[in-house]
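Sample intake sheet
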Amino acid sequence: MSCYRQEKRLPDECLTGAVDQESLDACTVQYLGDGLDARIARASAEVEGSYYGKLTRAEEIIAFANRLGAKKIGLATCIGLSEESRIFVRVLKANGLEPFSVLCKVGSVDKGEIGIGDELKILPGCHESICNPILQARLLNDQKTDLNVVVGLCVGHDSLFMKYSDAPVTTLITKDRLLAHNPAAALYTTGFYYKRLLETGRNL
């Protein structure tokens, strides 16, 4: 925490103190110039500095896209948040951006085809498509999107989407089915409602 304002001595075993100058400079140089990493870093800092505590996440994404010069916005959408994506599409269009959305069940490949047993389907005994984040990413890559936005992809599916996306990725909604897509709520309530999170030896 002392790194933020440099108002206090760095504590012993601080990671900043352990980083050699060559490694630090190698990272810092990536934020300089006109490369994509540098442009993303500056756009992010500008949005944070200009609108800290003033804009919603949806508005921050628009402000970020504008500073990045991103016009075509890809949406990697969970089927369970299709309505939220429809609304966000309207928001993007109202702000002069060009959305292109791909639903997670694209391709309609049954879970059995990748070795998922019928007992692990939500509704056993019927066709149940896998989430297909790799195909979502490839279809958005084909559209040459400038920026991709994750809308509620499952844990792990979001990892695959980010791995295969050509465009930079940010997140609008992080899925949490129990907590109305507010996963931080579980952390805020570990003292009571979700104290099970701190129990050792759980086999999840």
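Comment: The chain has a mean pLDDT of 95. Residues 36-51 form the longest helix (16 residues).
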